[in-house]
Amino acid sequence: MRATEAEHLTGEKMMENESLHSALQKEFVSIRLKTALPLEEERRQEAEGRVAGLEAQMLKSISETVARAMEDFKASPKMKDLNIAFGQQAFIKDFELYKGRVARRFPKLDLRFSEEEDDVEAGPFDVAVNPSSVELASGLSEPATEAPEPVQKFEAVKSARASSATIPPEVEILE
């Protein structure tokens, strides 16, 4: 009987020992989790900080790249062509508006001179001058072209003023 009692007590103590052992293991796990949790939280915050820094750096890089691309485009011939085309369109539109206003205000005025000629189109860059073809007769100080003759003679203007203020002097039309 004593042996059975001893076995029974030994069994109870072993079960109690096992339950204390599992409770102790759970406590160790809990302590490890409690110490690992703040470390993990700190790592997560560091990672979020690095991500935020990289995002800011990426946005700055993108904005610098966009700014450089815009400056390159503004300096490009394509942008210059677009500006010229826009200026031409704006000029033509304003010209047509004013032409319509003049036509409405002065209905008897002949505005055929302002109509476009399809066969002749000239622009500011259409004329090219070859400086080797211009030869000066006596040196560099003389002009390459002659000065045009005055349209009216001084005496004709003086006599026209003296004779009558209502009759305009005759003007020679140069073409």
Describe what this molecule looks like in 3D.
The chain is an all-alpha fold and 175 residues long. Among the domains are: 75 residues; 37 residues. It contains three helices and no strands. It is rod-shaped and about 155 Å long. The termini are far apart. About 20% of the residues have low confidence.
Mean pLDDT level: 75
Overall morphology: rod-shaped
Strand content: under 5%
What's the assembly state of these chains? single chain
- Helix content estimate: 55-70%
Order of helices and strands: HHH
Count of alpha and pi helical runs = 3
Rg on CA atoms, Å: 50 Å
Care to count the β-strands? Answer: 0
Biggest sheet architecture:
none
Q: Termini, distance in Å?
A: 148 Å
Low-pLDDT sequence parts: 126-144, 151-158, 160-167
Structural class from helices and strands? mainly alpha
Concise structural overview:
It is built from 3 helices and no strands. The protein is mainly alpha-helical. Residues 126-144, 151-158 and 160-167 have low confidence and may be disordered.
Q: What is the element layout, followed by pairings?
A:
Blueprint: H1 2-75, H2 77-105, H3 154-163
